[in-house]
Design goal:
171 residues, mainly alpha, 0% strand, globular
């Protein structure tokens, strides 16, 4: 695991900042996710009339903010809310009329380098995410089928080799 992502937290704590101030500063950084989410929604709802576009962009941002994953992590030292702005900014760059794939890739790469579970997003600019997900789902499906099939065999074998009951003849 890469500890570099925890440097901002370490620097604030080692500078002697009060824990509440550290949490507020981290929460401000985490709040960048909401601003970027709004900008993404604004771009995605571009075909709508201006009033509808504003309403839907606000609703999309509210829905993104209302997740059970976001709020418990806001103001904490977890890396997920610190790295989400990198990935959202990368998506925003890819959705521009003149996409900047190199800079978007650098943002995705930085997020992946700081937390390896973000690596799946690094291929988003090249259309590599969907095939990776399809392959993972297919492998999961195969594993479940094999597990169910294997479990069925064990149940059948157990029934054939059951213990002796009271009605069996003792010979």
């Amino acid at each position: 695991l890469n500890p570099v992502g925890y440097v901002p937290f370490y620097l604030m704590v080692s500078a002697g900042l009060h824990s509440v101030l550290v949490s507020v500063l981290l929460a401000a950084l985490h709040g960048l996710s909401l601003a970027l989410l709004y900008l993404l929604a604004w771009r995605m709802f571009a075909p709508l009339p201006p009033r509808d576009r504003l309403v839907f962009a606000c609703l999309a941002t509210a829905l993104g903010a209302a997740t059970g994953v976001f709020w418990p992590l806001v103001g904490s030292s977890f890396l997920d809310p610190l790295l989400a702005p990198l990935m959202l900014a990368g998506l925003l760059l890819l959705l521009k009329e003149n996409p900047n794939a190199a800079f978007a890739g650098a943002l995705f790469g930085a997020a992946a380098a700081l937390k390896y579970s973000n690596a799946i997003f690094a291929g988003a600019g090249h259309g590599q995410v969907a095939p990776v997900i399809d392959e993972a789902v297919l492998l999961l499906e195969r594993a479940v089928v094999l597990l169910v099939d294997d479990h069925q065999l064990q149940v059948d074998e157990g029934q054939e080799q059951g213990r002796a009951g009271a009605h069996d003849d003792a010979a």
